[in-house]
Amino acid sequence: MGCFDGAVPDQLLPFLAVVAVLTLTPGPDMALVLRNGVRGGSSAAWWTGLGCCTGITGYAAASAVGLAALLAASATAFTVLKLVGAAYLVHLGVMALWHSRRRPAPPAAVGAAVPAADGPQGTAGAAAPALDRATAFRQGLLSNLLNPKIALIFLTLIPQFVAPGEPAWTTGVLAAVFLVVAVAWWRAFSLAVGRLGPLLSRERVRTAVDRVAGVVLIGLGVRVVLSHR
Fold this sequence. Notes:
This protein has helices at residues 7-24, 28-65, 67-73, 75-100, 133-145, 148-157, 169-195, 197-200, 203-226. By secondary structure, the chain is mostly helical. It is globular.
């Protein structure tokens, strides 16, 4: 039975619905993409989202070779990854709160380069440094890779939509669907950030988003530490 000749077509729409809910549900990735979009505009949001999607690709590949199953089976490995991921989220949250203490450069549009401050970057009142694509991508990638819940999605969610007797590559097709939905969402989200540029470039809005994102990221980090599988 081929992937598109049997049970998978019957399950494809429900699978898409579940993936859409998971993608649109606010979490660490969304808080990070929004925060980076405020700092660097549509480009920074897009490259952060691409980093998140690359992390999804990594977990899909890991599940294909059994590494994700090993992570889920090993309590020690799962705990270590969870703690490292939580620490990274808290770090990003603290950095967001730190940047909110600085006055943004006057009327600079979102995504425009921010001139370097004369003093040290930590000087109060200095403009926050511009966010380059490489940094945005790296933050999105690490945020996703250090989230063990993504591995569990590939182990517990996708198999529920694969009927017995389906070929092994059916799982790969569903993982690809998951990735396509994520790429489409982050592209749309980044474009929306770009359209809201005039609003997001206002000092009060940027400061508020930094503070809210910082608190959310720290809260999510603490939640990861306290959560069970």
